[in-house]
Amino acid sequence: MKVVPSHGPVGDASLIDAQRTMMKAIQSRATELKRQGKSADETAQTVQTEFQAKFPDWAAPTRVALIARTAYAEAP
């Protein structure tokens, strides 16, 4: 099976697992920061900074803040 993402290189099904892992990690961190009382803006900035430093080769680093905001809004 080949995966053809709209952004990033073509690859195999492992790309799906890698994306899922990244999304869950962002979701987990955003939820943690929300529970600590951080605002949505603080959470987005913190997660963006942390994940760009930790995963500089990720295909969509500029989207981390948006994903974090969404996870924040959905977190209990």
Could you please describe the fold and organization of this structure?
This protein is an all-alpha fold and about 80 residues long. It is built from three helices and no strands. Helix 1 (about 15-35) packs across helix 2 and helix 2 (about 40-55) crosses helix 3 (about 65-75). The radius of gyration is 13 Å and the shape is elongated. The mean pLDDT is about 90.
What's this entry about, in short?
With 76 residues, this protein is mostly helical.
What secondary-structure arrangement, pairings included, does this model have?
Layout: H1 14-35, H2 40-54, H3 64-74
Task: Specify the structural class.
Answer: mainly alpha
Uncertain spans: none
Biggest sheet architecture: none
How many β-strand stretches? 0
Determine the number of helices (DSSP H or I, runs of at least 4 residues). 3
Helix content: 55-70%
Rg computed from alpha carbons, rounded to a whole number of angstroms: 13 Å
Oligomer: single chain
Spatial gap, N to C terminus: 37 Å
Helix and strand sequence: HHH
Shape: elongated
| Percent range for β-strand residues | under 5%
Output the keywords.
76 residues, mainly alpha, elongated
